[in-house]
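New to this. Explain these C-alpha cells.
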Amino acid sequence: MSNSVRAFLGGRAWAIAVAASLGALVRLAGSGPPARTPAGVAEMLRDAAELSKVAASDVFWEPPAGHLGALLAGRGVLFLGRPEPDGARDVYHARVRLAPDGTPLAVAGVRNLTQTSHSDETTLGGRGARAVFGSVAYGRVQSVSVLDLGGIRADNKPPGTVDRALLAVTAFQDTGTPRGIDRTDVMLDLVARRVDVEVDERTMKLEFGSPKREVTYHFDDGAMTTGGGMRAYGARAVARSYAPKPLILWAVDTVRAEVGPAPIAWLENKVFGARDLIKRTGYEILGGHTTRAELARNPQTLPAPALDASALEREAVEWPPEPIASLWKEPQAGEGTWKPVTLPLLRRFTPGPDQKRPPAYFYTTTIRPDSKRPYAEAQVIAIDMRQLELRMQAGYEDPKPTAGPPGEGRLPHDPDVVGRVVATFNGAFKTTHGEYGMMVDGRVLVPPVRGAASVVVDRAGNAGLGNWPNVDGVPDEIVSFRQNLDPLIEDGKINPTGRYIWGWELEGQGVMTQRTALCVTPSEQLYYVWAEETDGPTLAQTLRQIGCSYGVHLDMNPKHCGFVYTRLEDVRAGRYMTELAHPGMKILPDKYLRNSAKDFFYLVLRKPASRLESDRVSFRPAPGGQPDPSWFPGVFTATNDLGGLRVDLFRFEPGRFDWRIRAGTREPTLLGAPPHNLELGGDDTRRVLGAIGLGHTTEATRYGIKTNRDASLPPRDTYATLSLDGGRLTLLPPGKQLAQSAEEAVQLPLLTENGKAFESARERGARRRRGGLCVTADGGVLLAELEHDSPAPLVTALSALGCATIVELDRGSKHPAFVHLAGTETPPLGRYEGSTLYALGRPMKTTAFRWRHDAAAPSTKPTGFDISLERLKRSEALRASQRTAP
C-alpha cells in the first residue's frame, strides 16, 4: 500500500468506522430480529418467502459452518411452506444470517425446490447434511426423497469443465447455491397410504404397503435392498440427472427462467424468420423457381386418402399403407412411396418354426407438403401397431411436475423392456409453454387439461389419440398420457379450434422450424411425422395429405425433434446401437437412453402373453391353426408341474377371437322354452380355431344357458355366468344381473371369487379330466386342465397366473373337460353332447385407435392431501444436533 493511500485512510479512519457502525445499526434495526425460538424463525422464513404459513416443526437446518460463516453468508435451512392457507406445501431452501449468539438476522436466497402445487410435501427431517421428505398426491404416497445438502456429488456431474461451470450457474438459479443440492427420489410403485421412515448415517429404511414391505436405500452407492439384503421390489431409487446440455439450449432455458418466455419467443421469431427468408430467396435466385402452376393440385383441396376401416373386420390389416399422393406434377424419386426399414440393428419378432416371417414394422417415405417451399421435406414413419407397443417417459426437467418428483429421463432398466426397445422419439412442449398434462404408468406428474390433444395408453397396452374429456381426474382405463396444444386435425378437419399460436410464437406469426406430430388414420394406422421448415398450419396440412384423421403436435425446433431407431444390449455398459431416421434431425441419437431433460416416447416389440410368464411357466404358441396373421400367434399353451401333477394351460389372447356359446345335444329343455342353438352357421363354421367343453346341466343342478334372444334355461342367482355381450366375454359372479344386451350366456360352478376359494374348490370325487377357466382383466381367456380327483390344482395354477375369479368347466354332467384345437389330432367338432364355448379367429387389429372417452365411464379423482407420512424417527444424536439451531 502506498504512503498516499495510507495517509488518505489514516486521516479518515474514524469516519469509516462510524459509517460502518451506522450502516450495521440501520440494517439490524430495520424490523428487528425475530424471537430466538423455532416459531420466530418460522415466521421469518414465512415472511421472506411470502408464504401463508411455515410451521416451526417443518424447519430443518444444515450443519453449522462456524459463527463467522453464519454471520456473513448465513446458515442453510430447508423448510416446508404453504403458498395458500389451505394449499399443499412445497420444500424451500434459504440462508439465514445468524449473530454469534444465534439470533437470526436476515433471510436471503429463498428458492422453491419442488414447486408442486398438486402434491403435498410432508415430513421434513433427516440427519446431518441429508434431508428427507415425502410427497403425497392423488390419494397415495408418491415418493420419499433424499436431499444431499453437501452439493452435487462429483460422480454425478458432467465431465467437462465448461459443462460443470454451466451446471453451477443452473444450480445457483434453482437452489441458491452454486454447489447445488443432490436429489434422489425413492419411487413407490405400489400404492401406499402410509410410509414409516427411519434415517441413520448410511441408510434410509422405509416400511409401507399391506402386507408390510421393508426396503432400505443406501446413501453411498444408491442401492436398494430388502430386509433380507435382496434386491428391492415395489420401490426404486431414481437419482437426479445432471447431464451436459448443448450450450444454445442451456442459454435459452437459463434466460427464459429469468425473463420469461415472451422475449425468447420474440428472438425465435426473428432468427427463424430471417433464416426462412434467406433460404427462400436463395432458392429463387439459384433457379429453383417452382411456382403454384407446377403443382399437380391445390393442397387445400387435396383429397385425403382414407383406408377402409371395415377391412379390419374382413381381412388382415393392409400393410404397408397405400402410397401418398404428391402435390407436385413431377414428384421426386420415391416421394410418397413407402419403403421398409430393414436396418440390421432393429430387433425382429421371432415367429414359431411353422410360421412365416412378419413384415417390417416400420415403413417410411418423404413428401413435400409446402407449396411455397418445394425444398422442405416431411418424413413420415408408419408404425405397425400389431407388432409394437407405445410407451412414454418423463424427462428429469420436463414436464416440470406439479405433483410429486420429476421423471426419470431415461429408458427403464428392466431387462425385459431393454431387450424389446426398437425406437425412441421426442415428446411435447415444456411445462412453461402451457402446463399440458402427463401421467406415466399411473403416476400423475401434471394434471390433464380438458379438451387438450392427448396421446393415451390404456391398461390393455393400446395407444389412443383424442381430445381430453370434460371430466374430473383421469379415466380409469388410462395408465399413461401426454398432452399438447389443440389437435392439428380432428376427424379430417384442419385446426378445428382455430388456434393461431402453435408454440411460443408472437401472436399472429408462425415460426418456420422443425416440428413433429403423431397422428392416427381412419384405419387406425399410427404415423410419426417430422417436418423441416414448417409452421403449425402447414404441419396440419401435412397430416391431412397423408390421410390422418386426428393428429397431435409434439415438440418443435432443432435439438428437440427426432426419431431414433434403437437397439439396446446394456445401456450402463455403453452397449447399444442407434440411428437417426433422417439426416436432417439434430438430436443426439442416445438422448433418451441415459439422461433426457425432456419427455419422450419409445416403442417396444409386443410380447404375447408376456404378463403371464414366470419362472415355472413359459407359454409357447399352441400347435395347429392360429388367427390371422399367423406370425403373431393368438393361442398359447404351457404346462405347470405341481408336485408331480401336470397341469395343461391354454391362453387365448385378447382381441384375437370372437366367441360363441352353443348348447350340447344333451342339455335339458323346459316346456315352452325356446329351443337350444346347437350348431354354428354360415362363415362361423370356417373360422373356428378352438372348442372348449363345458358339459351339460342336469335336473339337479339346472345351470342356465342362453344361445338365442331368450334363455332356454333361465339363469339362477347362485351360479356364475359366462356372458357374451358386444363380442366381449365376461365372467359375472353369482347374483350379478345378466345384461339385456347379452347375446349368449352360460352358467358354471364358481371355484373362486376375488381370490377367495370356495369349498367346491377343495371337493374330492372321481378321478377324471377336469378344467377351469378365467377371463383376465385385458379380456384374454385362460384355461387349465388336468387328470385329478379335485379341482384344487386348477385353482392353484390359475391363481398363480393372476386369475381372481375362476369357474369349473362342468355344468353338472361330470363330462371330461377338453380343449380341441384346429389343425391338431383333435379338431373342433360342429356338435357336442355338452355345451361348448367356440373360439373363432378374427384378423388382428392394430393397437392404435382414435380415442373418445365415454363421459359416463368412471374416473380417478384426486382425493386431496389428507394423507401424511409418520414423523421421521430421530435418534438422540439427531435431536441434539437440532437443538444447536436457534
Remarks:
- The chain is about 15% helix and 30% strand.
- The longest helix spans residues 261-285.
- The longest strand covers residues 90-98.
- The mean pLDDT is 83.
